[in-house]
Amino acid sequence: MKNLKLIYIYFLSGVLFLITAGAFYSTENSNLTPAFASIGFAIISISLVFYSRYRSCKNQNKT
């Protein structure tokens, strides 16, 4: 990913999954909580990898 805005949107979608997991945890249908939480953490970790690769490519282009 070369566009920083897309990386931020991807990260925020992971945060949205975590918020949804918290909302499901407070209801009686809490068996969906682990699924939404794991999806959210996976999306956040992938977006952090994209961000670190974006920064490393940007630093290499400066030199």
What do these coordinates show?
The protein has 63 residues and is mostly helical. The protein has 2 helices and no strands. It is rod-shaped and about 55 Å long. The mean pLDDT is 88.
Mind sketching the topology for me?
Layout lengths: L3 H23 L6 H30 L1
Helix pairs in contact: 1-2
Helical element count? 2
Average pLDDT works out at 88
Determine Rg (CA atoms, Å).
Answer: 15 Å
Structural class: mainly alpha
Report the order of strands and helices.
Answer: HH
Strand content: under 5%
Assembly type of the chains comes to single chain
The N- to C-terminal Cα distance equals 21 Å
Weakly predicted, low-confidence segments = none
> What fraction, in percent, of the residue positions are helical?
over 70%
> What composes the largest sheet?
none
Strand runs, count? 0
**3D shape:** rod-shaped
Characteristics:
2 helices, about 60 residues
Characterize this entry briefly.
84% of the residues lie in helices and 0% in strands. The chain has 2 helices and no strands.
